[in-house]
Amino acid sequence: MQYFGGCDAGSTYTKCVILDETGGIAAHVTSRSRINPVLSAQAALDEAVAQIPDLREARELAYLVGTGYGRNKVPFADENISEISCHAMGVHVVNPEVKAIIDIGGQDVKGIAVDADGTVLDFAMNDKCAAGTGRFFETMANAFEMPLDEFSRLSLRAKNVIPITAQCTVFAESEVISLVGEGKPMEEIAAGIEMSVAKRCFVMAKKAGATDSVALTGGCAKNEGLKDAIEKVLKLKVIALSVDPQLMGALGAAEYARQKGRNR
Length: 264
Known about the structure:
Nucleotidyltransferase, domain 5; 2 domains; 39% helix
């Protein structure tokens, strides 16, 4: 049995997926990225390989593709492919019906239009500001003094929305801290935060060609409040993926590795 790997060396998390010859997921790992992307990728690969009795080390993978922020630093990679292409392919593998993706990563937001074969038709990226990214949500959760997963569900209990007017992460944090200090309902402040991010996704959704539905990828795709806000603000159905949406880049990279490795 041959195995094919994809390693998504992201700025916040490093993800690794290993596929078998049939395209089934044999192993997967998500771990917090270190400062050194080489060490991050190596640790994720080692952990994934350890899940497969037939493999002893990453060098034994038939083909390995690196992607993400640190894709050029993935040890033993046969090649690297952009995360935009890999997210498109990963979602295509999970659900070929999806034609529009919003990928919300640790430091940027992307809108991706997917062709019938899983390749990229068009894309747009916002990488000039941290607002609306994973870093932004981590900052907001810290301001609320609660874990990120708890914060992501907080807005679902809101009966009203308190708008967040600041467009910058630093200023938004100050605004949120002031509102909390005034005793405003925390769930309503959280709803305002989720709504402000959903509005920022409008351009990305339009560039991705989303008309009635969209899939979310990246760690922020697990944010239940954000999914709810996107459906309300953008009037789009958020398609649930059957595989962890944070793994889409690594899964797409592994599928590219499987396609290329079989043709060697």
